[in-house]
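Following up on my earlier message about magnesium ion. Here are the inputs again, as you asked, copied directly from the submission form:
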Amino acid sequence: MPHIVILAGDGIGPEIMEQALAVLARVNQRFELGLTWEHHLLGGCAIDAAGVPLPPATLAAAKAADAILLGAVGGPRWESIERSLRPERGLLAIRAELGLFANLRPALLYPQLAAASTLKPEVVSGLDLLIVRELTGGIYFGQPRGVRILDNGEREGYNTDVYRETEIQRIARVAFDLARLRNRRVLSVDKANVLEVTELWKEVVTEVAKDYPDVQLSHMYVDNAAMQLVRAPKQFDVIVTGNLFGDILSDEAAMLTGSIGMLPSASLDAQGKGMYEPCHGSAPDIAGKDVANPLATILSAAMMLRYTFHQEAAAQAIEHAVGKVLDQGWRTADILSAGTQRVGTREMGAAVVAALE
Ligand code: IPM
Ligand code: MG
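Thanks, got it. Here's what our run produced:
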């Protein structure tokens, strides 16, 4: 039986997950997927219950599962504890332990939400780009790292940005393979004019491109890419980049679509096993208030059905249901615009389940 580990996490995590599971339960039944799932702790809730952000039981269950669906982790309650024990460390550790190096973050603008974007509708309408972010290397994991005391007593913080050739090659291949399913264009983002590590990145991506003569490769410095994303985002198809640049550019790309509350993501290993999560965080300020947008988590469940379970029809059923709910004018607070109807987290989830019928 295909088995999923559910990590609802902290903040709005549990409430958005509840809605995603209601949707998943419905498609599970309708498409006879035979999916089963169990809940485990990750992040702040795991610190409270077990003293660490990634308890061994969670890691073991995640390793044994076919896929993982995650809500969000972190919150102010855990910000003052020792660095190595913070909720985010649990998330980084599970990505590293499971070898989830390929992070796919599609930024797709639902036409119904063109008015919710802070950019002009003509700039964003029709937007459909995919950020492929390297997720288990770069400055997020490079050694040495830390904060040290200098001879004069001053503190100095330091991190190391590091990428091996093989790490660059495998993420580049993911990007080129995915481009073949789309518009056959890959943009590699670097800061090769300053950083050696990204100069190597650019070289290696260029070498890998030789195996994909049917895909057009171009390069851009990250500062320019950040600017182009708000200037003319429709020029992009697939963007491949390292861990830190990918983190930043994916939040930027998310806002083009109206709200980060709409963006799902997949983090895959070399075999296509994956962890699926919304791109947004735990939003502690609105947690428990029934206002969070559950659509990014619902769409993450759809990505899980597509990429890990190869259930394209079920994945599309969820995506169509989301489109239908937006057509009907239902909006959570983050995507509200003139002439639409505000609903809460639960109502939004229920509307998607109803739209599946
Ligand atoms: C993300 C998040 C994480 C990251 C944080 C919570 C550690 O911002 O998934 O984009 O930086 O990778
Ligand atoms: Mg981020």
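One observation from looking it over: The first strand starts at residue 3 and ends at 9. Hope that helps, and feel free to reply on this thread.
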